[in-house]
Amino acid sequence: GREHPKVTRFAASDPFRARLGSLINRYFAIQTALAADDIEGALGAVPAFEDGLKSFDTNGLAEGARAAWEAVEAKMGDAARGLKSVEDIGAARRHFHPLSLGIIAAASSFQPTGLNSVFEVYCPMAFDFEGAPWIQEGREINNPYFGAEMLRCGHVERDLLTVTGSSHGE
Fold it and tell me: What does pTM read for this prediction?
């Protein structure tokens, strides 16, 4: 498969990890709307995502973890701001790409809780065959970069909850 950047895992408090789970659910609302070609739904879900992003308390994080979080938070914040200002779904999908890269990095590094499943999916055809990843709940491909045009294009690359070693309350 694709080469994945080496991920550093960071310890984070239970409240921090639960907030990340909540943020991922807010991301899923944007992802499923884009997969449904629903631009209004996608844009409508962005403010809740931004609110979620503002709710993190980084006081408990070690220095390296805080720096990593702040970098990924800035990336997601920029993408969300861009996403809010778009005119069409093509532009929305372009901003969704860095949002996805940020959320994948966050999920890989900080072990979110409160989620049933988080699958990282990759579509090699997105953006004129540059390819792009996203995360989704469930294994059935719901492609946010193409919607109905090629809804099932892509493949599950990994189960992020397994990769990050967070378990289902075991």
Answer: 0.93
